Structure formats: structure tokens, C-alpha cells
């Protein structure tokens, strides 16, 4: 339907509509931006709401204005038509039971944002394994300023409360509510009822009021609140809720209930934060109240068949489903289901899962499904998995439990003959045309009990009717099937493709024209233009393109002209390497022009700028094709494959020509104002994440990546703004000072630099060897941001001469910066 799109979020399908609808008129914040916020904040939000019933405040038409506020709906029940995969749990009310949503995954947050659930409210208790209201696990004090009081007064009261709570062994964590006041959270020891926690909070409020009657009140009477701060203790009642940490607020501006540090509460300019600031903070400092989040070690999973699964995973840090209920789910069909997943973890294995008693009982099978009754394969029992895992595919981050890529090998239903503690016999029927077919299996326990016990997976000689079963095909890792090897010319590769997280780009080594010329003579000539853009690895699934920067960050949404349509790269999956460039009015790549695109993140801004600053993706390599790793093939043969893939691509995707003469390529680069050339060994393989001497870059323009470590305030026309930036290049003794840059800044650039650098202010000088005159009025910043400058030369002391600003390099980390001359 017009204005609708179906997206996949961590394996779940969510229908999104009206993404351009403005929900916050005063800031122009759209529904798409709200959905983006909840999607990105999920890793730190979910641990604070998981297992808790969520009550929502919905603004379907937006919050409106002061003069014309938007209509708000208070929602407890899930909407009719909510996706079946949204977890829910009932609570009895006088009018009957209501099914409250439970937020345990990113997809649920995206759905709730889609229906304009701007505010998420939760109680200070979680459901038990039986679905009942559990004990209180958090204490909350809501510091609410009355008329004549404000955030500064709340911060003072918070410090008084902190002294008492800390003395009781209840470490408090502050949250600026995004509305008026401050919330204080403390973890409670096990066994407190909500009535007990509410009584405790009330006594705390009275004690603070007794010590500071001039500023604190514990009574709910509005007549007693002028000029004072109410300590609202009542939200610990089991029937009440508090705005969840990291939830948006339905105010005129998109503020957030933002966890803060105690140092911040000492700031006289303390204020509420908007959602863009909170996202930036998450990237910079993580979650200040992470110790209170379920799944971080502060809480143990309740008893139940899924308790081991839940205890090993942190919701929001892995795309896997993390249920709040450890009991499992009821069967949804006439026949139980199975799934076999291929798992590229530390060691490749296949996960064999059978539905039983509301969970997926699971075994890891290192050698996969036996193709014949003559072979038995070892199977190791693992923890039970939730039923929702049956549809899971994705990449588990490397540092999380089970890190690696998971794909579904086959799935279907099964007919059970026997289920005992030491033996399971069943006939599985996979998908039509799938690799399994209809096969009868036996699982026989040989050693141990429960998780980590050893079993044999046996393909039965006969089916349930006693007829002989046919042998199956050998199980080979995805992309390595013998029936369809990948070949280019006489080369042949059957290596499986590593997970997407492994595709760090290959890097070139800096070289002089003379060295590059001699190398080309030795290797055979192969020269490519060096484009003045940003590196982008593209993951093509046969229909849509996903892009990642050199840093690994997802940049798909930044370039919709490449990613929101069929790019014409053929029916087979591929992983491609290239450079995103913006062309000036003469058709020449311009890195300063590309800055207009690469630093945008809001969908509305991207859509507005894209027609003014269109981009091209210049391809020069292919890392995988048709699910097979091609990195081990020679460059010349990879090039043939690349040209085949891109033969029918859209005009914005280009495979530039290869030169056969270094000097001719350098002359052409000078003529067209390009950055330089890259000379490559045509026999070289692609080495992920390696700076290789098989690729030599020769620059015509002098450009240098630099780490920003300080700001000198502007004077004259730039008074109140940035005058110049202090730059450094990492060396053996630390961040070696490399001079200043004060030219090449537009007003837009200065605004972006202020927004980027001011949150990084520090008292510590990060440089080695900065002169006293440059340090005299410097404002130091943490050396976390990389930029790029043009320059004439380096002085003998390593200082850049006649430097001019080119732009930020968010695709490069400080550790990757090296001196290029």
C-alpha cells in the first residue's frame, strides 16, 4: 500500500507506515526518527524493562503544540492486530484480563514505536516464571519540583537522598525524567513485596522532609508544594508505573528519561536531554545505570527450562530473542516443529532443535546431519531455546555468547515415536526442495545428563513403516556445496563465506611513484584511480543492498539512492568493495562535497540532501559471490566476477576502468583532479583488515588523516566559535602534535564540529610536544575524532604546513591514523 513498507528487524517482519509524519511539530521530529531512536537505543533500554508489563502513552497524530496539544491514549492492552510474536502477559483488572506487551527484543520496540507509543511506563517488579507479579526488585523515588522550584533543586534533594540510601547499602542511580524532575533508582535485595518497598520509600521521603522542611515535602497535597520538591514515594505501589529509563517523553520537544552520572547532577546548567543527545551519550559512555539492568549480572533468571538460555544472553546486545518468561510457550500447531541451523561460531557446527514441552530442545552437531545410516554423528546437548528461535537468522556479535553467523539450514515438522531421557526417535519432514527431505532419526544418549551430555545422532536404516530410507547428501557448510562450486576461469573455490562481521576492508600502503612503477613492472601493470570518497563494503542479498563503512558501522540509511531499490547486481548474493563518492559540477569526486551526506543521520535531512548531492558507488573488488568466499582468488579473476555482477547495475553503481601504465594513470588523475592512484598486484588475494604491500597508493594531492585533540577559540568574526583545531598523529610516544588547521571551514562545518567535539571536552592535554603558545588558550578534547586535511608539506619537526580542512572521517578510528608522507 502507498506509504507502507515491510522491514525485517532481527528476523521479525514489521510493517511501517507514515514515516514522514511529524510527531513533534516544534522540532520537526518524524515518526521515522522515533522508530530509529527506539531501534538504536534498544541495547541499553531493554535490560531495564524486560520482564515488566509495559503501559504506554500513544500520540497517533503527534504531541501537537502548546496551543493545540495532540490527543493522547493511555494503552495497557495490546492492540488488536499486533504481531503474534510480540510477547505479552495478562494482568487481571476489574473489567477482565488485559494482555500487556513485554519488551524483550528490538523488533518489539520498533513495533511499539510504529503505533506511536512514545512513552513506555513500567512497574518496579517483574513477572515470575508462573506469570504472577513478582517481588519488588527496584526502589524508585520521583523528585517532582513544585511551582517555583526546578531541576537544580531536585538535584540538591537527590544528593541528600543519596547520602541516606548509600548508608543503607542501596546505591542510587539518577535519571533526569525528561519532563520536570529526577528519578532515583536503587536495587532491592530479594524478597521485598511492593507494599514493603512502598512503605520504605515513604519513610525515606519523610526522613528527608524532616531534615530539610524548607525544600522537601512528602505529602501529595498540591497546596503544600510551592517552592518545594515533592518526593513521590507512591510509584513503588505494585499497581503503579514510572517512565522507563531511555523512554521518550510526549512533550513539545523529544526529551528522554535519561540516566545520568552524579557528576552531571553537580552541573549548575543541568537540563533535560533530547533523544539525539542520548544516542550520542550511549555511544560515548554506555549506560550509567547498567548495574540495575536485568541480564547484566545484577539479576539472575528465574527457574524454568529457559533460565539457562536467558542467563547467557543480554537482551539488546544480541539479535537473538531473549524471552522474559523462562517457562516456554505452548505449542502453536498440530505437529511439533524442528529447525536445523548452521552456526559459524568459534567452531562451525549445526544446531539440531526439536520442539518439546514449549521449548526447543537443542543439540550441537559438529559434523552436521549424517547422510547415511552407516555413520553416526556426535551431538552435544545444549541449553533449551525459546520457540521464537525457530525463525532466527543473523549475526551474533563476536563478544557475545555463541558469537557468529546463524542461518537456517532446514525446518519443518516432525512425528514423534519416542521421547525418553536417554532416547528420542522421530521422523522429520523439511521444506519442499530443502536439503533434508523426510527422514527418520534417533538420538541416543551415551554419556552425562542434561546440558553438555553426549548423544549420537543416527539416521535410521528404515522409516517408521519398515521401508528402507534413501541416503541423503553430505552436509557441507553454506557456500561450499560440491554440486555448485564457484569458479572463475580455471580457478575454483569452495570456501564458506565468513560472517559479515569479518569483512574488514583490505588497505593499501603509502608509496612513491618510483616504487609503485617498479612494483608494476615486477607484478604486471594494474593501476586503479584513487577516489576521493569513503570506503563502503556492500552486502547484496539478491534484492537489496546493505552498506557498512570501513569502521563496520551500518551506513545503509545514509545512501537511499543505492539501498532502497533493486541495484541490479544480479540474483545471487554478493559482498562487494568500493568507494562512495560525490561528484562536483564538473563530474569530479569531491570529498568536501561528500561531507554534506556522510555526516547526516536523520531520514528527513538525508532525503532533502540526496537530490542536491547525489553519490556514486565505484566498485573495485568482490569478496564473496553466490555464498562463496572469493578472497583467496587472484585479483584479476575477482575482477572478472565483479564485472559480471555489475553488468546490469543501476547508473549510480560503476566499475571504473583499470589502467595498464602507472605514469598514464597519474597523468589522468592530475588532469581530472583526482586524489591519486592505487597500483595492485593482479595475482594478490584479498586480505581482510590488512594494510598490504600488494596494494600501493600514490597520492597526488597531499592529504593526511589527523586526530583532533584540542580547539582554539575563535576571534573577530569567529568569536564564540571554533578558531582552529589542534591536530595530532599517533606515534611511538603517544599522540604527536602535528599543528593547527584554521581554514576550509564553512558555517555548516563549524556547527557540525561544535556538536561533535564539545561533548568530548577534557581537562587533559592529549598531545606530546604541543608548543606553549598553541596550548595557552586551548580547550582540550578527548582524542576520539578523526578528520582529514590538505597540506603543503611536513616540517622536519612533523608539523603540517599550510594545512586546510577537508572534513571529518567517521569511517576511520584514531588507532588507524598513520603519517602518509
From TrEMBL:
Its cofactor is Mn(2+). Signal peptide: none annotated. It comes from the Bacteria. One of its GO terms (molecular function) is ligase activity. Keywords: ATP-binding, DNA damage, DNA recombination, DNA repair, DNA-binding, DNA-directed DNA polymerase, Exonuclease, Hydrolase, Ligase, Manganese, Metal-binding, Multifunctional enzyme, Nuclease, Nucleotide-binding, Nucleotidyltransferase, Transferase. Its EC number is 6.5.1.1. It catalyses: ATP + (deoxyribonucleotide)n-3'-hydroxyl + 5'-phospho-(deoxyribonucleotide)m = (deoxyribonucleotide)n+m + AMP + diphosphate. Coiled coil: none annotated. Residues 608-728 form the ATP-dependent DNA ligase family profile domain. The keyword Membrane does not apply. PROSITE patterns: DNA_LIGASE_A3. It holds the Pfam family LigD_N. In the C-terminal section; belongs to the ATP-dependent DNA ligase family. In the N-terminal section; belongs to the LigD polymerase family. This is DNA ligase (ATP). It comes from Microbacterium aoyamense. The lineage of its organism: Bacteria, Bacillati, Actinomycetota, Actinomycetes, Micrococcales.
Amino acid at each position: 500500500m502507498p506509504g507502507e513498507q515491510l522491514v525485517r528487524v532481527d528476523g521479525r517482519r514489521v510493517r511501517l507506515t507514515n514515516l514522514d509524519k511529524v510527531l513533534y511539530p516544534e522540532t520537526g521530529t518524524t515518526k521515522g526518527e522515533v522508530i530509529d531512536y527506539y531501534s538504536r537505543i534498544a541495547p541499553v533500554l531493554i535490560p531495564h524493562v524486560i520482564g515488566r508489563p509495559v503501559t504506554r502513552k500513544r500520540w497517533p497524530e503527534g504531541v501537537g503544540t502548546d496551543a493545540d496539544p495532540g490527543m493522547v491514549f493511555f494503552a495497557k492492552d495490546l492492540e488488536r492486530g499486533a504481531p503474534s510474536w510480540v510477547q505479552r502477559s495478562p494482568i487481571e483488572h476489574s473489567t477482565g484480563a488485559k494482555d500487556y506487551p513485554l519488551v524483550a527484543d528490538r523488533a518489539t520496540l520498533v513495533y511499539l514505536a510504529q503505533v506511536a507509543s512514545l512513552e513506555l511506563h513500567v512497574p518496579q517488579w517483574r513477572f515470575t516464571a508462573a506469570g504472577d507479579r513478582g517481588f519488588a526488585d527496584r526502589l524508585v523515588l520521583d523528585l517532582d519540583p513544585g511551582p517555583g522550584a526546578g531541576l537544580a533543586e531536585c538535584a540538591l534533594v537527590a544528593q541528600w537522598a543519596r547520602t541516606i540510601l548509600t548508608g543503607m547499602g542501596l546505591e542510587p542511580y539518577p535519571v533526569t525524567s525528561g519532563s520536570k524532575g529526577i528519578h532515583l533508582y536503587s536495587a532491592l535485595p530479594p524478597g521485598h513485596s511492593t507494599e514493603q518497598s512502598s512503605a520504605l520509600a515513604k519513610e525515606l521521603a519523610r526522613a528527608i522532609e524532616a531534615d530539610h522542611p524548607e525544600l522537601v515535602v512528602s505529602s501529595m497535597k498540591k497546596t503544600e508544594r510551592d517552592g518545594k520538591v515533592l518526593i513521590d514515594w507512591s510509584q513503588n505501589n505494585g499497581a503503579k508505573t514510572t517512565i522507563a529509563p531511555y523512554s521518550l517523553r510526549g512533550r513539545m520537544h523529544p526529551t528522554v528519561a535519561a540516566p545520568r552520572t552524579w557528576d552531571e547532577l553537580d552541573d549548575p546548567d543541568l537540563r533535560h536531554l533530547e533523544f539525539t543527545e542520548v544516542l550520542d551519550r550511549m555511544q560515548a559512555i554506555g549506560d550509567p545505570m547498567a548495574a540495575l539492568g536485568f541480564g547484566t549480572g545484577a539479576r539472575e533468571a528465574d527457574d524454568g527450562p529457559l533460565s539457562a538460555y536467558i542467563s547467557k544472553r543480554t537482551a539488546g546486545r544480541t539479535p537473538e530473542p531473549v524471552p522474559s518468561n523462562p517457562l516456554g510457550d505452548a505449542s502453536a500447531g498440530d505437529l511439533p516443529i524442528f529447525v536445523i541451523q548452521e552456526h559459524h561460531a568459534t567452531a562451525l557446527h549445526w544446531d539440531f532443535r526439536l520442539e518439546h514441552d514449549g521449548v526447543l530442545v537443542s543439540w550441537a552437531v559438529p559434523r552436521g546431519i549424517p547422510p547415511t545410516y552407516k555413520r553416526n554423528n556426535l551431538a552435544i546437548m545444549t541449553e533449551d531455546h525459546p520457540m521464537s528461535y525457530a525463525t532466527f537468522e543473523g549475526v551474533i556479535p563476536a563478544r557475545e555468547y555463541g558469537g557468529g553467523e546463524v542461518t537456517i539450514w532446514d525446518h519443518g515438522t516432525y512425528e514423534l515415536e519416542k521421547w525418553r531421557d536417554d532416547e528420542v526417535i522421530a521422523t522429520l519432514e523439511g521444506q519442499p526442495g530443502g536439503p533434508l527431505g523426510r527422514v527418520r532419526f534417533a538420538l541416543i544418549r551415551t554419556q552425562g545428563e542434561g546440558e553438555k551430555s553426549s548423544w549420537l545422532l543416527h539416521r535410521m536404516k528404515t522409516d517408521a513403516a519398515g521401508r528402507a530410507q534413501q541416503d541423503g547428501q553430505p552436509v557441507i557448510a553454506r557456500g561450499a556445496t560440491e554440486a555448485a562450486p564457484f569458479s572463475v576461469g580455471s580457478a575454483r573455490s569452495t570456501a564458506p563465506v565468513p560472517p559479515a562481521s569479518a569483512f574488514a576492508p583490505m588497505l593499501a600502503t603509502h608509496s612513491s611513484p618510483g616504487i609503485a612503477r617498479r612494483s608494476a613492472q615486477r607484478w604486471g601493470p594494474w593501476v586503479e584511480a584513487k577516489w576521493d570518497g569513503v570506503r563502503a563494503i556492500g552486502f547484496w542479498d539478491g534484492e537489496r543492498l546493505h552498506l557498512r563503512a570501513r569502521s563496520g558501522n551500518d551506513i545503509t540509511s545514509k545512501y537511499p539512492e543505492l539501498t532502497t531499490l533493486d541495484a541490479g547486481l544480479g540474483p545471487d548474493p554478493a559482498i562487494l568493495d568500493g568507494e562512495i563518492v560525490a561528484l562536483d559540477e564538473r563530474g569530479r569526486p569531491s570529498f568536501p562535497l561528500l561531507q554534506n551526506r556522510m555526516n547526516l543521520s536523520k531520514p528527513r535531512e538525508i532525503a532533502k540532501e540526496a537530490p542536491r548531492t547525489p553519490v556514486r558507488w565505484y566498485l573495485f573488488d568482490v569478496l564473496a559471490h553466490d555464498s562463496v568466499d572469493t578472497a583467496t582468488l587472484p585479483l584479476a579473476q575477482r575482477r572478472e566476477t565483479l564485472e559480471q555482477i555489475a553488468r546490469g547495475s543501476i547508473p549510480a553503481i560503476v566499475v571504473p576502468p583499470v589502467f595498464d601504465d602507472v605514469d598514464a594513470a597519474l597523468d589522468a588523475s592530475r588532469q581530472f583532479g583526482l586524489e591519486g592512484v592505487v597500483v595492485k598486484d593482479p595475482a594478490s588475494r584479498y586480505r581482510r583488515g590488512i594494510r598490504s604491500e600488494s596494494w600501493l597508493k600514490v597520492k597526488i594531492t597531499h592529504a593526511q588523516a589527523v586526530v583532533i585533540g584540542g580547539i582554539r577559540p575563535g576571534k573577530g568574526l569567529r568569536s564564540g566559535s571554533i578558531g582552529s583545531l589542534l591536530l595530532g598523529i599517533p606515534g611511538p610516544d603517544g599522540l604527536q602534535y602535528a599543528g593547527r588547521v584554521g581554514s576550509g571551514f564553512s558555517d555548516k562545518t563549524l556547527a557540525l564540529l561544535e556538536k561533535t567535539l564539545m561533548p568530548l571536552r577534557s581537562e587533559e592535554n592529549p598531545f606530546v610536544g604541543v608548543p606553549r603558545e598553541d596550548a595557552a588558550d586551548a580547550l582540550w578534547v578527548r582524542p576520539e575524532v578523526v578528520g582529514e586535511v590538505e597540506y603543503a608539506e611536513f616540517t622536519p619537526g612533523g608539523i603540517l604546513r599550510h594545512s586546510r580542512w577537508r572534513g571529518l572521517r567517521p569511517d576511520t578510528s584514531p588507532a588507524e591514523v598513520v603519517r602518509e608522507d
